[in-house]
Specification:
- It is a single chain.
- The chain has a single domain, classed as ATPase, nucleotide binding domain (Nucleotidyltransferase, domain 5, 2-Layer Sandwich).
- It has five helices and 13 strands.
- Strands 3-2-1-7-9-8 form a six-stranded mixed sheet. Strands 4-6-5 form a three-stranded antiparallel sheet, with helices on one face.
- The longest helix has 14 residues.
- By secondary structure, the chain is α+β, with helices and mostly antiparallel strands.
């Protein structure tokens, strides 16, 4: 059984994939994506491409490159990110990088505030399930899609790698997941995946960085997602 875990973020594309029960292969790529004709020219004259070429609804896209490389394409930074062509391009790039023709189970995540919306979860599952034309000559099929709260991934990975995870059996654990668009801070109980018990903090890291760059003395106002 082929399994793919994919996290399409605002900064990075993260993958873990392989046969069920075996050690997964892990990859990390920058989360830049744009139509191929919007890619800026490299002034160094390097010919080696450090990105992937995919198609989205028949349109050639490049994906897996630094966001600042796509200087002729606006970066997507909003709650409806999964509905964008850039997100779909990164999804197709992730499928290509997995080197799998058929994926039995795909696991992905949403920020906590979006995960709690059943309609959003259903839409993301519909987007990712089925047959995908990722390049003009290649199609990849995804059978089943499971959507989880994004912070669950880091928590499960930590528990999985412990020699003794018994300390978490009766614990209430706070997981802090700082991202470029939002910061999630859910609590979890007894090492069980479930709906997080606390709402996410929604102060964008990009706002913090922007304010720091501008030398603003006043605190950053949280962005409500």
């Amino acid at each position: 059984m082929n399994v793919l875990g994919i996290d399409i973020g605002y900064s990075n594309l993260k993958l873990a994939f392989g046969k069920r029960g075996s050690e997964p292969k892990v990859l990390l790529r920058p989360a830049g994506a744009a139509p191929a004709d919007r890619l800026g020219e490299m002034i160094t004259g390097k010919k080696d491409e450090d990105f992937l070429r995919v198609v989205v609804n028949g349109t050639p896209f490049v994906a897996g490159l630094s966001p600042d490389r796509a200087e002729l394409w606006s970066r997507e930074l909003h709650e409806d990110y999964p509905s964008t062509e850039s997100y779909r391009a990164l999804f197709h790039a992730g499928l290509l990088l997995s080197e799998l023709e058929h994926i039995d189970i795909l696991v992905t995540g949403l920020p906590v505030s979006q995960y709690l919306n059943q309609d959003l979860r259903n839409r993301l599952q519909s987007l990712m399930a089925g047959e995908h034309q990722v390049t003009p000559r290649r199609r990849i099929t995804v059978e089943n899609v499971k959507v989880v709260p994004q912070p669950v991934g880091g928590f499960v990975d930590h528990v999985w790698n412990l020699k003794d995870s018994s300390e978490f059996e009766d614990s209430r654990v706070l997981v802090v997941d700082p991202g470029f668009f939002s910061v999630d801070c859910p609590t979890m109980r007894e090492s069980k995946q479930g709906i997080p018990r606390s709402p996410p903090a929604c102060c964008m890291l990009r706002d913090v960085l922007t304010s720091s760059a501008l030398g603003v003395d006043s605190p950053v106002m949280p962005h409500t997602a």
